[in-house]
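INSTRUCTION: Work out how this chain folds

Token vocabulary: learned, describes local backbone geometry

RECORD BEGINS BELOW THIS LINE
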Amino acid sequence: MHNFKLNDYLCSMRFRINWDALGISASLACAIHCAILPLILTSLPVLGVNIIHNLAFEYFMIVLAFVIGTYSLLHGYRKHHHSLVPFFIFLAGMLFLVAKQVWHHYQIPLLTVAVLLIVMAHLRNFRMCRVHNHAHAEDCEH
């Protein structure tokens, strides 16, 4: 009879992060923050807390989405499909996200387009990674 050791089992498990799923989650979290947070937290200014129009928080969310998205798409590009199309779609979405910060009167339409483009980029990257499944090219790093 084999002795089951929890430590051996945990060490043998491989944990992998799905960066596309994480990128989509970050984009959706940003969208939820921008759309719902003002409705839920309308009483915070009365208490002296202003998180709804907090520029530092807004820019932090944009940078977070950009870093996670870029890493995810770069991984797909290098290891799987070697196509920049998802990255260009992602950059367009990020530009709309930054434009939302500049043109506040068009915040909702710009946010909607931004989130759709970012999610579309991650979905396209995910599908391209699954179709190509390690398409090797001259610039392949593995």
About this structure: The chain is about 70% helix and 0% strand. The two ends are 40 Å apart (CA to CA).
